[in-house]
Specification:
six-stranded antiparallel beta sheet; 156 residues; alpha+beta; 27% strand; 2 helices
């Protein structure tokens, strides 16, 4: 399970809206001090909103600004990222080859452009179809600390 912390910014009957800070993997890299990528990632750090369904918890159990821990299964992340990268790449390569075969260099260039756009559109369509599948939705793992300031409340 890949975990992330978020802060509750809105509470609805069946889900929470969380603010999470999107970071690159540079934060945990030991070579980041001598790497130019670290400087670029610091510029790109931004806060994102995430809709998290309430499955085993109730909306009344949360407060605005409360910190929670969410997670998603590694397999789901691998499937989604594999689809996002492989489908456009295969589409690009296939249509580039077909364009080259039918119309030479101009056909290859046109095929590459059409291929990458069709691949990206296919991934967007597929992800909209799979958006409601629970495997791809983040899960609440714990609700931060309870009101007495004690140990985290586990939801699993």
């Amino acid at each position: 399970m890949i975990e992330e912390r978020g802060r509750v910014v809105a509470i609805e009957a069946d889900h929470l809206w969380l603010a999470t800070i999107q970071r690159s993997s540079c934060q945990s890299c030991s070579a980041r001090a001598g790497c130019g990528q670290h400087l670029l990632s610091a510029l790109g750090e931004r806060e994102g909103l995430l809709k998290v369904p309430l499955k085993k918890a109730r909306a009344e159990d949360f407060e605005m600004g409360q910190e929670v821990v969410i997670g998603i299964a590694e397999q789901a992340l691998l499937k989604a990222s594999g689809t996002a990268y492989i489908v456009p790449l295969l589409s690009l390569l296939l249509l580039t080859g077909l364009g080259q075969y039918w119309a030479g260099e101009a056909g290859a260039i046109g095929g590459a452009l059409v291929g990458i756009l069709l691949g990206a559109a296919g991934v967007a369509w597929y992800s909209r179809q799979r958006a409601c599948v629970s495997e791809y939705q983040p899960q609440l793992l714990s609700t931060g600390t309870n009101s007495a300031g004690g140990d985290p409340i586990k939801l699993l």
